[in-house]
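Handout, section 4.2: multi-component inputs.
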Amino acid sequence: MKGQKVDLIVHNAKIHVMNDAGSVYDAMAIRDGEIIEVGPERQILNKYRCDEEIDALGKDVYPGLTDAHGHLLMYANQKLGVDLSGAKSMDEVIYRCEKYYAKSSNKFIIGGGWDESLWSNDSVPNNKRLSEVFKNIPVCLYRVDGHAALANQFLIQKAKVSEGKIDGGEVKIENGAPSGLLVDNAINLVSKHLPAYPLNQVKDAILEIQEELLQYGITGTHEAGIDFKHIQLFKSMVSSGKYHLELYAMLMNSPENRAFAAKNGPYRFRNLSIRSFKVFADGSLGSRSALLKKPYSDDHQNHGLLLTSVYEMRKIAQFCLKNGFQMNTHGIGDSANALVLEIYKNAFERNPDHRFRLEHSQIIDPADFSKFSQYAVFPSVQPTHATTDQRWAEKRLGKDRLLGAYAYKSLLRQYGMLAIGTDFPVESTNPFYTIHAAVQRKNPKNEPLNGFLVKESLTFDEVIRGMTIWAAFSSFQENELGSLEKGKKANFVIFDKPLESKSTFDQNYAWMTFIRGKKVYSLNEL
Ligand SMILES: [Zn+2]
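Output:
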């Protein structure tokens, strides 16, 4: 018997290591869930032996992809509720709710995914018809971006919602009374009056999402905001042996979560890593609650909303620095991003390697771009937002402000890295949509024909780095994840077709997906 015994050899492959040199090799050896060596075919086959060899048939092998900004829990809840995505009118929204309720054992309706920009008259919705149809149960329907919700009258009354503005939110008023439409922090007024789904249903839904991600070669996600009770939920999922994905969780800014962080410091439990906080600086462009320096081009009285005060954000930054945590702040509007950059300046002065992230970095005043490099602020972007929003972004912002919008190349030039994700379920989990959006600047229907703001296109290599090695950097995991080098976790995907970006969208899938050396998905074993 020749060679050292290992657990797995992958050979006859095109292994894209994603190291600085951009190396491509034919074979790799894996033991105890880690890569022992990657190199030329003969070198690996002569040096090692194992019971299971995989002939990759010359296919592309990449580090398992990371979705650097997603919401497993929100997606699970969406799966358990009524799906309103793509609905073409309020009538269709109500019809889908009725159909769902007829089959549901629960005495409430929670839905998500509606987008009034797809309706024939894209006017601001109210709850009038919804309240007529559902008189005696709570109904809460979230907008696709999660930054607005429509609550029926029953729920509005149960939660004793009255009129007016609240800090970082708004209760929309029609004819002197709440219309049912709630924006940003106003949603919290009703959400606490909604029942939760049974835990086993949530877990099953997360496992279903895991299958969806593995078929695309995604082996890890950064969960953008969890409550304290969810730490236990994810720990029990990890322990169950059925949950395989690497999970980098961001904690919401609550007293219990801060106590957890202060007590534990950066926290590891197998493939669960917790060392960051998620903070909301502002809302969304779709809901016109992103905080802008100048008013909306299609709503001249409105600048948007600041969701967390500057004082509070500064306090969280101090807390994170003290406890070895990272701060990941949601910033859409140019004003919100400018405020966060100034807060991060102080963090930089205390710790130049803070890696504080700006989630979305969506609209940046051109005068502010250089602050990303000056204060070492890590941009975290979702290229499919650009190609989804292109239908109406100019209406909201005007032509001039588009110069600093969805400006991924400019951000990359400043910081030298990007963390790339999808913000699922706001967008699809499909990473090939992300590649197409980032490189071609088109949606999967290849719209717009010549691409949206194509000056800000990334190269194919850059977008893959954003989903692998840079995503690992953005979560302090570059020594374990993100490339196929000796000593790293054997998280990798063999793609069914060559992985590339063409001017016309072409769907791909994983042929096999591995996490820590274990095959967790195979196209041929479906
Ligand atoms: Zn998000």
